Amino acid sequence: MPNATPVSMALDGAPVPAGSVSPGRIASFLRRDPAFAAAAITLFVVAVAGILAPVLAPYDPAQLIDASARAQPPSAEHWLGTDPLNRDLLSRILYGARISLGISLVAVTLATIVGTAWGAAAGYAGGWVDALLMRIVDAGLAIPRILLLLSVVAFWGRLTIPAIVLLLGMTGWFAASRLARDSVRATREQDFVLAARATGASPARVLVRHILPHAMTPMLVAATLGVGQVIVVEAGLSFLGYGVAPPAATWGGLIRDGREVIATAWWMSVFPGLALAITVLAINVLGDRLRAAMGGTQVPAP
Amino acid sequence: MTGPPPPLAPDAGEPTSAPLLRVQDLRTYFHVRGAVARAVDGVSFDIRPGETVGMVGESGCGKSVTALSLLRLVDPPGRIEPGSSIEFEGRNLLTLDEEGIRQLRGNRIAMVFQEPMTALNPVFTIGDQVAEVARVHARASRRAAWDRAVEMLNLVGIPDPRERAKSYPHQLSGGMRQRVLIAMALVMNPSLLIADEPTTALDVTIQAQILELLAELQQRLGLAVLLITHDLGVVAEVTSRVLVMYGGQIVERAPVRELFRNPRHPYTRGLLEAMPRMGRQRERLTVIPGTVPPPTRWPSGCRFRDRCAWAWQRCADEHPPEYFVTEQHNARCHLVDEPARDVAPAALGGAR
Question: What predicted TM-score, i.e. pTM, was given to this entire model?
Answer without folding.
Answer: 0.75
